[in-house]
Amino acid sequence: MHPIAARELKGRPVLTETGSKLGALKDVVVDADSGRVIEFVVSHGILGGPDLLIGLSAVIEIRDDAIIVKDTFVGEGTPALA
Fold first, then answer.
1. What is the pLDDT tens value at each position of the chain, 82 positions in all?
2. Which of 1, 8, 11, 21 is the most exposed place for a label (fewest CB within 10 A)?
3. Is residue 70 within 8 Å of 77, Cβ to Cβ?
4. What pTM was computed for the model?
């Protein structure tokens, strides 16, 4: 795996492994001590529903065209604080 800047991921579609679109990557949450990404903030909903926080453990793959997360994530996301 090669390093990638968070700015390169921003706006990238976030899909489940079976192809359902959850939204677009809005931001990343970084652990201040380790400097590692721990969660992804995903904006979703046509009408601007609440953002979702997706833990790194739910991410299967980061591709050039999308971020793929486990299907089991659906319904387990926590709304992000505004």
1. 578 888 899 999 999 999 999 899 999 999 899 988 899 999 976 666 788 889 989 999 999 999 999 987 654 445 444 3
2. 1
3. no
4. 0.80
